[in-house]
Amino acid sequence: MDYIREYKRFVNSYYLSEGVRITAGILLPAIILNHFGLLIVGVVVSLGALCVSVTDNPGPIHHRRNGMLICSGLIFLVSLATGSASPYPVLLGLVIALFCFLFSLIAVYGSRAISVGVAALLVMVLNIDRSYRGWELLQHSLYILAGGLWYTGLSLLLYGFRPYRLLQQALGECIMGTADYLRVRADFYAQGVDYEKVYREMMDQQVRVHQEQELVRELLFKSRSVIRESTQTGRTLVMLFVDIVDLFERIMTSYQDYQALHAYFDQEEILPAFRGLVLDMAAALDEVGLAVKSGRPSAPDDSLHLGLARLREQLDSLRDRRRTPDNLEGFISLRNILQSMEDIETRIQTLRAYSTYDKRLLSTAQPPIEYERFISHQDYSLKQLTDQLSGDSNIFRHALRVSLATLAGYLVSKLLPFGHSYWILLTIIVILKPAYSLTKKRNYQRLLGTIAGACLGFGILYLVHNNTLLLAIMMVLMIGTYSFLRTRYMLAVILMTPYILLLFHLLYQTRFEAIVLDRVLDTAIGSVLALLANSYLLPVWEHQKIADYMVAMLEKNAAYFRTIAAAFVDRPASRTDYKVSRKEAFVSLANLSDAFARMLSEPRSKQKRARDLHQFVALNHMLTSHIATLSVYATRLGPRYRSPDFMPAVQGILDTLGRARAILLDRTEPATPGPGGRDEEPMIRFAPALERRVTGLMRQRQEEIQAGLGDTETRRELSGLKSVTDQFRFIATVSVDIRKICGRIRQAPGA
Predict the structure, then answer these.
(1) DSSP 8-state symbol, 378
(2) What is the pTM of this model?
């Protein structure tokens, strides 16, 4: 791991900015009011700020503002309701169950609504043991409301100073995520490569890139200041995002038959040279990402251009020494990869240029005009909520699960002499997720993080006795906690535990040994209850839902292919249609990969048809990569080779994907092998005229090579047509394999 790069990545990230903002928003009320002798009031105001900070997720500023204002009003009402019920244990238990159900059910309205629900449950939990009455209760709730409004104002004020800062940080993170994806792809060129491991890492990284792209899409296309105000900075950021998405697609197009390449060239130094240059490109992308994050221009660098020139010389030398009719296809593949790398290098230089915010670069820019088609809109109607009131709804099941688990936690806390209801319930609420795999992971991280953090807290309190120094250490721990909370949960818990321990020590001067022991025991109780609830209370397993992702994947890949293939049979689709179909295919692939990864984290008995599903995911990744490769040829070679000869191949591929989809939906019988126990080679069946043209050119070119002829018209014609036809062949073959695997999945026991 490059620790310097990771350090720069972190200090320029919006996660650190968020950690500093939240820490300031929470601490300042307590510090200021303590100066006037109102520490208790300051702590309650800070509590309100803490709750609202939960909803201050990255996103368009008007979404953040609305979420924080709604949350402020909601925590005021929840504080009143919880305080009113707290003297009556039975009533309080009912309030806990009801609030946990309602505030978990609003997850149907999206991630920001989930955060609002968590904030409401947080203020409920922290008010359970309060015994306020009448005006005192109202006053306490008003202080919480004031804290929420204070944090909202602080967040909006900081945004006003640097309105593009969050967007730059998110965009830089997206660029660096693409660099990580490119770095994984470089492993395909390593000797002794573990293909299954690389595919798994590649799919995991693609999910992360998709999440980063979606965040930037939200920030760009839902922010009026970027879209409707033609500022130089806003337009440049739009173009940076458009180009990095195009670059990500171009990286995917570099897919080849790597096993065949290793068979051809493992005894040569050419594949390690390709790998080294790919890693250099990833490092260059990292540098651009850091520059965009920090708002400084990326320094010009021609090392990639020189590296490409050396690689081309090395490839030409190898071709002159080793080329034969038998390895001709291997050299064609290497040349195609080199052309892709040259295009990627050009795009990296374009990103470097955009990072200077030079307005002259915008004169030829073509940002997407119909940006509305690239974003999704959340339905906030009441019907959206009431439609979830069914046992078939995963959100309803999760809400009921949280409600029953927290009620059980509350009862256990009343039965045990050492149980603290607020900490047990908080543990359940934080750990319990809709997916078993996420709950299991959070459970492990929460418990181990609490134990490790307790040891750290013991060490700090044992060594440090100065309260001013303890306060400074607590502030550092707070910044670390809120900086890592969204990315490295276990590390956040390790930092959170001593921070809370120091807070209690500074406020109440109690014996910290008792506090730590109580926290560890309460965390263990909450963890056990959360895991039991997720396993036995209306559980939902990924194998029950993954078919929906599979069907969506086939639909989006078919639409993506149809859009690209139009350039070879009719006329190319519009730029916007092409980009929308690409986005939807990439999103579906990321969703499918994520669902499969979650399934692998579930108990082995629940991993139904895991091997076949893994093959389905890998085949669809290959299919998307080949379609993306075809899109490059569609722009460059579509007008030259446009012909009715492609129509049978296009229709055959679409029919095959449609049949695979129908098999998954139980609308047709599983595919059966053709004569001889296997299907015919798809392209022979789909496009015989194309195959005859390519075969004839290949034979003619091999004769020219034996005759010592170099650059000929046959070579140029073969290079273009074979590149296009190969992609159609790959797509056809993968489509047939997908249809077969769908048949096996359908016929599997328990399917």
Answers:
(1) -
(2) 0.82
Task: Name 304's Cβ contacts closer than 8 Å, sequence gap at least 6.
Answer: 277, 280, 281, 284, 345, 348, 349
DSSP string, 571-599: -PPPHHHHHHHHHHHHHHHHHHHHHHHHH
Instruction: State the residue for tokens 């692998």.
Output: 600
Count of C-beta atoms within a 10 Å radius of residue 91: 12
Please give the C-alpha separations between residue 670 and each of 108, 422, 654, 662, 673, in angstroms, as whole numbers: 35, 54, 17, 9, 10
What one-character-per-residue DSSP string does 380-401 give?
Answer: --HHHHHTT-STT-HHHHHHHH
Burial (CB count <10 Å: 0-12, 13-18, 19+), residue 518: middle
**Contact of 253 with 183, CB cutoff 8 Å:** no
Residue among 591, 595, 587, 592 at smallest CA distance from 560: 587
CA 209 – CA 182 distance, rounded (Å):
11
Contact 656, 742 (CB under 8 A): no
Chain centroid to CA 461: 39
pLDDT band at 308 (very low <50, low <70, confident <90, very high): very high
DSSP string of 2-42?
-HHHHHHHHHTSHHHHHHHHHHHHHHHHHHHHHHTT-HHHH
The predicted pLDDT at position 66 comes to 92
Phi-psi region of 295 (alpha: psi -120 to 50; beta: other; left: phi over 0): left
Looking at residue 680, the DSSP 8-state letter turns out to be P
Of 501, 401, 506, the closest CA to residue 452 belongs to: 501
- Look at residues 288, 279, 280 and name the one whose alpha carbon lies nearest to residue 353: 288
Contact call for residues 646 and 690 (beta carbons, < 8 A):
yes
CA distance 189 to 181: 14
Record the tokens describing residue 308, joined without a space: 């490409």
State the SS3 of 317-359: HHHHHHCCHHHHHHHHHHHHHHHHHHHHHHHHHHHHHHCCCCH
The DSSP output letter for 277 is H
The residues, any chain, with a CB within 8 Å of residue 409's CB and separated by 6 or more, are: 421, 424, 425, 427, 428, 525, 526, 529
Q: 259-280: per-residue pLDDT in tens? A: 888 888 888 888 899 999 999 9
CA distances from 455 to 30, 158, 437 (A): 27, 36, 27
**Residue 589 · residue 626 · CB < 8 Å:** no
Using the 8-state DSSP alphabet, how is residue 54 labeled? Answer: T
Angle between helices 688-706 and 328-354 (to 10 degrees): 100
Measured distance CA(246)–CA(736) in Å, rounded = 28
Residue type, 93: G
Render pLDDT for 446-502 as a digit per residue (tens, 0 to 9).
888 888 998 898 889 888 888 889 889 999 999 999 999 888 889 999 999 888 888
